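Re: the multi-chain job from yesterday

Posting the exact lines I submitted so nobody has to dig through the queue logs.
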Amino acid sequence: MKLSPSLERFINWVEGEDVFPVPEAKPVPRARKAPARRRRKTGAPFFRPGKTLPVVYDMIAVIVCITVILTLLITVSWLPRFGGETNPHLNEVYARYIESGLDEAGAVNTVAGMILDYRAFDTLGESNVLFIAVCSVLILLRADRKEKDGSLNIPELQIPWSAPSEDPVFRASAYILVPATALFGIYVVLNGHLSAGGGFSGGAVIGASMILYVNAFGWEKMDRFFTYNTYKWIMFFSLITYTVLKTWSFYTGANGIESGIPLGNPGAILSSGLILPLNICVGLVVACTMYSFYALFRKGGIGNGK
Amino acid sequence: MNLAVAFLLGFLIVCAAAVALTKNLLAAVLIQMGYSTIMSVIWLLLESPDLAITEAAVGAGVTSILFFVALLRIGAIARARKEERKK
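And the result, structure tokens for all chains:
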């Protein structure tokens, strides 16, 4: 199919090739010397940057700093006391969460019930923001060059620590810490609705364990189970699952239909409706985000290329 | 506001001032890591365990590691002498 030239040019531009010709540099005419500035008629010299003493700048900086610090401190001193009885946030919303949180959301952890049941749309927006952040970092930091046959080549940057670590203390401690940390992270994600934690904290811990693994054992071993395709599909499926599950919940809730999601016994693992699957989705997104930030910073690409 | 919380908050103020005033970038990142750890303890004392876990994992964990990698990329960390002896 023959494409129109402007469409071809657009496609070439999207793929990173130069489509706009750089114009020839024209010789710049020599500028005439500017006339000397005259002082104002009142006789007072006006503020000339570059000719004022540096002491003035320092004084202004200190005064601005002190003003900002005092303003913030005075504002903070007007805040109500921690845990006071007449705090303005103790209204009917708070009463509803405390009294009916366990019955309506089914979660023993009221915070998890709040962020994944009452305000699940905000959490979807937050996962979306994580995804957008990773996309921006990918655009900025991914170092890829196209080979002759069109496949991507992600070069190893000239950093001597791309190989598995040779430090025996580090490797021995990583042998113990990586499975322990990963297991703890999975525990925090799965118990989000029962005890403290949830998707975000658990995902961060799992991401940290992946970073430790790749530091201790090298990129080749990481590539055995976590390539760029894995990362892409995990992010995609987690977000899509979250959206589909919550769409069902919103649809039935807005139209007054029974949603048919079992709440279960509060206190059991398989309880509280949709909170467990949503925690898993959020945990996977956060873990992939943390690891991908590290890989992009360190190496310029997730996985070993191609 | 008992003595323990007041002591930890004073430590936070000292950490914050030290991060701003130190000239060595590596030291600044390490002090920032300590700040996040103490902040995680304070979150626990303010009765928010979710925030404590997240702050410990993210602040004292992943963000500090990302800072270190950024410093590595700009050459602000001295490379290990073992690697240089190999070359």
